[in-house]
Design a protein that fits this description.
The structure holds 3 protein chains of 3 kinds. Chain A is α/β, with parallel strands linked by helices. Chain A is built from 6 helices and 9 strands. In chain A, strand 7, helix 6 and strand 8 form a beta-alpha-beta unit. Chain B has one domain. Chain B has 8 helices and no strands. About 5% of the residues of chain B have low confidence. Chain C has one domain. The mean pLDDT of chain C is about 90. Classes of the chains: A alpha/beta, B mainly alpha, C mainly alpha. At the A-C interface, helix 2 and helix 3 of A face helix 1 and helix 4 of C.
Chain lengths: ~200, ~250, ~220
């Protein structure tokens, strides 16, 4: 369970949000809504342990993030709004290498299957720089299929996806929740998923 | 023990340190002026003229204390940096950045006075002496620290990055000093020792000591003034600064 | 142990693969080294005695500058595209991943310099023995340059004027390596023997291997905040 108490976030001299508290139990997902610049990404970065809040604390299963970073990160899958893809490498290399650095040895056939599921047949060996924005996003989302994690933190996961991919992703998230996982998403678009909890910044 | 710890952390908050610093500055400034006057009086008037070096040697009353201080201030900066990184106190970072310009100034003065002294003594403005070279590198380290802090916009990141650099620097200073000496002996360069302690008269030593203490008090006064400016800049939006500004 | 090192190997391999797709960058850095070292005789004059004397220093300073060239791109591309965030969030040790990147940087930027150095040494009329010592000193010393440089690259990550700032921070810290490295050959020529210099260089290498990746990781976490 992810729990957040009395969080305050400051960017430079501006206070983005103050005294934010919530709990995210298993099988639930949380939408973070808010205008541009309200601090959605800043909140996600705090939740993932990338940045430290000015005040307040975040715990995962009762343990503060900082005390057992490795255990928390083993449970966490974070997809930022940046691609984390290397233009020079193929989708296949991108997936296997980034997962390898996280300690997951993924057989090539499994990675190819994941790419196919996201509709990237025939693009496995093409350098990423030849892919469109939506296709790049799909390569990134393949990590959801390949890397087991109990908590998903996804920053704008629906950006640049077409209607099929949106449906597929929603299905994935639902399956993840049914399997006992939890998720935190930010999104501008109206969500097709059944409503979870919502925090508006 | 516990009680005193609480007290220290109370002053670690910028809001309570600001007025305290304001009260302390005049004392340190007065001490600095008094000691400077005494030190210069001994150095320029009382101390005997050197048989070999004439009147020119009197610049060491500035040169030696300034060199001491430039090294000492870097260590103090590293101390504050370590404190800031381990306890995450904001004031420590501010102290580190407040000390850096004074340290750089002293390192520069040390080089400048060294050159002024070297010209009549060795016949050259610059000699690749181990001490001079180390001092020059220390000056570069100060410049690097100031430049790094100036280049980072977010003050929290600037403090932490500066602290890491100061600690890396302070570990390297002895290594650099040792390597430069090693280099110097290999090349048999100018092996003129700058201060021969045993032959120094007591009055000379006293003068230098007074000057060093004067610079020490000056450093504290100036650093406190600078810390007050930094606190105001960083806490512009907070309530207590607004209240202070109204008064 | 082997499982623990797997992510480290992946990190090295990934950076090598990326470098292999950017071959021009490696060649440019190497060419830069060659041309800087070759400019010195043109500026100083072709007197063989003088050249033999300045050769160790010239090659070492060339190696120093060539390393600096690649350092600016050690973390910057990974920072720009979000890969660094993913590495920081890896359940594996971030320090090991950073160490992998540093090793890859040395393999790409340092090792070619070491390998071509004897050839340039010949241009400076160095004897066989001096060439051997010089190459050995570079072999011990260039990893130090990558290690300390990584700390500077992490500190200046995403900062205005990062490149020039990086040089200002790092070059003073390179001085001991330069002195012991270039000094080894001179000490040998002076009849003292290079052992002292080379041992000190090795000691520096050990110390920086232990501390630099860790300090660079701390600095990267600060930069990512």
């Amino acid at each position: 369970m992810l729990s957040v108490s009395h969080l305050t976030c400051q960017r430079g001299e501006r206070v983005l949000f103050q005294d934010l508290s919530f709990e995210l139990p298993q099988c639930q997902w949380l939408q973070i809504a808010g205008a541009n610049g309200a601090g959605k990404t800043s909140l996600l970065r705090i939740l993932s342990g990338l940045s430290e809040p000015v005040e307040g604390r975040v715990t995962w299963n009762g343990t503060p993030l900082r005390e057992d970073r490795e255990a928390f990160h083993a449970d966490l899958l974070y997809l930022g709004h940046q691609g984390a893809l290397k233009e020079e490498l193929t989708p296949l290399e991108n997936l296997t290498l980034s997962l390898g650095m996280e300690g997951f040895e993924v057989p090539e056939t499994t990675a190819v299957q994941a790419l196919h599921q996201f509709g990237l047949q025939g693009r496995e060996q093409l350098p990423v720089r030849f892919l469109s924005a939506g296709q790049r996003r799909r390569v990134l989302l393949c990590r959801l299929l390949l890397r087991p994690a109990r908590l998903w933190i996804l920053d704008e996961p629906y950006t640049a996806l077409d209607i099929h991919a949106v449906g597929f992703l929603s299905g994935l998230i639902e399956a993840h929740l049914l399997g006992g996982g939890s998720a935190v998403l930010t999104s501008h678009q109206s969500m097709t998923l059944s409503p979870g909890m919502c925090v508006t910044l | 023990m516990n009680h005193s710890l609480v007290n220290w952390f109370k002053f670690a908050s910028p809001a309570s340190f600001y007025p305290l610093a304001g009260r302390l500055i005049p004392y340190f400034a007065t001490v600095a002026v008094a000691l400077l006057a005494a030190g210069l009086w001994i150095g320029l008037l009382v101390a005997p003229t050197d048989a070999q070096q004439g009147e020119g040697y009197r610049i060491i009353f500035v040169h030696v204390p300034v060199s001491w201080m430039s090294m000492f201030i870097y260590c103090v900066m590293a101390f504050w940096a370590a404190l800031g990184l381990s306890f995450n106190t904001r004031l420590s970072g501010m102290m580190t950045s407040a000390l850096a310009p004074t340290g750089a100034l002293f390192a520069f003065l040390s080089l400048w006075t060294g050159a002024l002294w070297g010209k009549p003594m060795w016949g050259a403005w610059w000699v690749w002496d181990a001490r001079l070279t180390s001092q020059l590198i220390l000056f570069f380290l100060y410049l690097g620290f100031i430049a790094l802090q100036a280049a980072i916009d977010d003050p929290r990141r600037a403090d932490k990055a500066g602290a890491i650099l100061a600690l890396v620097g302070v570990i390297n200073v002895p290594i650099i000093y040792f390597s430069v000496q090693w280099w110097n002996t290999l090349h048999q360069g100018a092996s003129v020792s700058m201060t021969k302690a045993p032959s120094m008269a007591h009055t000379m030593l006293l003068g230098m000591l007074l000057m060093a203490l004067a610079f020490w008090a000056y450093t504290i006064a100036v650093a406190l003034m600078r810390v007050r400016c930094i606190i105001l800049e960083r806490e512009l939006t907070s309530e207590w600064v607004k209240k202070n500004a109204m008064e | 142990m082997i499982r623990l090192l797997a992510p480290f190997r992946q990190s090295v391999w990934r950076d090598l693969l990326l470098a292999a797709r950017h071959k021009t960058e490696i060649i440019t850095a190497l060419f830069f080294f060659v041309i800087v070292v070759n400019l010195l005789p043109l500026g100083i004059g072709p007197d063989p005695d003088l050249l033999r004397k300045i050769a160790p220093g010239a090659l070492w300073i060339g190696a120093l500058l060539a390393t600096l060239l690649g350092l600016q791109r050690l973390f910057a591309p990974d920072h720009a595209d979000g890969t660094l965030e993913q590495m920081a969030l890896s359940p594996q040790s971030f320090t090991l991943l950073v160490a992998g990147k540093i090793v890859a940087h040395w393999l790409v930027a340092g090792l070619p310099v070491v390998l071509i150095a004897p050839l340039l040494g010949v241009q400076f009329d160095l004897s066989g023995r001096s060439l051997f010592i010089l190459t050995l000193s570079l072999l011990l010393g260039t990893p130090i340059l990558s290690l300390i440089g990584a700390v500077g690259a992490a500190l200046t990550l995403g900062v205005r004027g990062g490149g020039a700032l990086l040089s200002l921070l790092i070059l003073p810290l390179y001085i001991p390596a330069l002195i012991f490295g270039a000094g080894a050959v001179e000490a040998d020529l002076a009849g003292i023997g290079p052992d002292g210099h080379l041992s000190l260089l090795a000691a520096l290498l050990v110390v920086s291997t232990f501390f630099a990746p860790w300090v660079a990781t701390v600095a990267l976490r600060v930069a990512l905040e």
